[in-house]
Design goal:
Distance between the termini: 11 Å
Strand content: 15-25%
CATH superfamily of the largest domain: Glycogen Phosphorylase B
CATH class of the largest domain: Alpha Beta
Radius of gyration: 21 Å
Structural class: alpha/beta
Strand order of the largest sheet: 3-2-1-4-5-6-7
């Protein structure tokens, strides 16, 4: 069968690539065409457009690139209809994907599957109407979403979390070798603090400077930046002059060898927890005082990190907007850096509880098998 997938960022590329592998296992005749990334291309199929040419996040970047966004949408809709897949699989990226879903549902009979549900429980809850109207099957990776959507009279499929799959597969295939990792990246012998400052240019520019200023207070530790896929290496050049090292395209290996991490909210917070690395969530904004005032109005949840949302409590400290200061980062690091600190041990224990809530690996496999079953029954 033919599958058309759409992703909008690096994490979507990872999860979609794993889903594609699982679809190939469940459907020997699987063919793929996609708006995606390098990992999806490695699995096989035709990459119509790379996600880095489509991903514009934030009000100003979106406004400045409206013509490109609309052109990409029109191209995508046309390409789907010409290729006539057996299923359209949307992966997160709601601003773009829900527009595609509406058009395909309205003008074709192609089933629309959503893998990794839009986080409407956090903001823009009104999108539930679009989802109920335009999405045939929704596949959730967060256990609390089942009850949330049920309250809106919409049954969904919880299939486990693909981050669990990805981290589990990595750890089974990659034995920790601290000496080799340090030698390969010229890291010396200081304990590593990983800096995961986001996958977009504005996130890196907003968060990385303060992370590095805070790390200057702890000269006994080595700050190592996780270089984001699709970001020009030159963007990081000024930060490397401040005593930091960088590891490109190998974030999992960096986390495997890290003592603590400073992480911009997103999938990375969950991945860091699955590697059992104590962390501080750091998310700065250009106008922090305004965001702090508006947050209670637009955000419907108490936390922004997936770790805290899944656990249902504050497992990791979230320094967001006005709380994101160098002083606060220094203070939180001070609690987590000592190997025997109570804060560190408590966080690790809470990680284990959260991991139990997520369940066993197998999300990609469960989703693929369900999709193939639905399509087979439809035929």
């Amino acid at each position: 069968m033919k599958y058309y997938l759409i992703v909008g960022e690096a994490s979507g590329d990872l999860h979609a690539s794993n889903l594609m592998k699982a679809l190939k296992a469940a459907d020997s005749g699987a063919e793929f065409r996609f708006f995606g990334g390098d990992l999806m291309s490695q699995v096989g199929g035709t990459c119509v457009k790379h996600y880095r040419d489509c991903a514009f996040m934030g009000f100003i970047p979106v406004l400045m690139n409206l013509r490109t966004i609309f052109a990409n949408m029109a191209m995508c809709k046309k390409d789907i209809k010409e290729w006539q897949p057996d299923a359209l699989i949307l992966v997160d990226y709601p601003g773009f994907n829900l527009s595609i879903a509406r058009d395909i549902h309205k003008t074709t009979s192609i089933p629309v599957y959503y893998y990794i549900a839009p986080k409407i429980w956090a903001s823009r809850e009104g999108r539930i109407k679009n989802i109920k109207r335009d999405v045939d099957e929704l596949f959730s990776i967060l256990p609390f979403e089942v009850e949330y959507f049920k309250k809106h009279s919409y049954d969904i499929n919880y299939i486990g979390n693909p981050c669990v799959d990805a981290v589990d597969a990595y750890l089974r295939g990659n034995k920790r070798d601290d000496a080799a990792f340090r030698a390969a990246n010229n890291l010396g012998d200081k304990p590593i603090v990983a800096l995961l400052a986001g996958s977009r240019k504005h996130e890196i520019k907003d968060n990385l400077p303060q992370m590095l200023q805070a790390m200057a207070e702890y000269p006994g530790y080595m700050p190592v930046i996780a270089g984001a896929p699709g970001i020009d290496k030159e963007l990081y050049a000024p930060y490397l002059q401040q005593g930091a090292a960088i590891v490109f395209g190998d974030t999992y290996r960096l986390l495997q060898h890290s003592h603590v991490a400073l992480v911009t909210s997103g999938t990375a917070t969950l991945e860091t927890a699955l590697f059992r690395v104590p962390q501080v969530v750091c998310y700065s904004t250009p106008v922090p005082w305004l965001i702090s005032k508006l947050k209670p109005i637009f955000l419907k949840v108490k936390y922004i990190s997936l770790v805290n949302l899944i656990a249902g409590s504050e497992v990791v400290r979230e320094l967001v907007a006005a709380d994101m200061t160098v002083k606060n980062i220094i203070g939180e690091l001070g609690k987590l850096l000592p190997a025997d600190s109570a804060a560190r041990q408590t966080m690790l224990a809470e990680y284990d509880r959260m991991i139990d809530i997520l369940g066993e690996p197998g999300a990609s496999q469960h989703a693929a098998e369900k999709m193939v079953q639905l399509l087979t029954e439809k035929k």
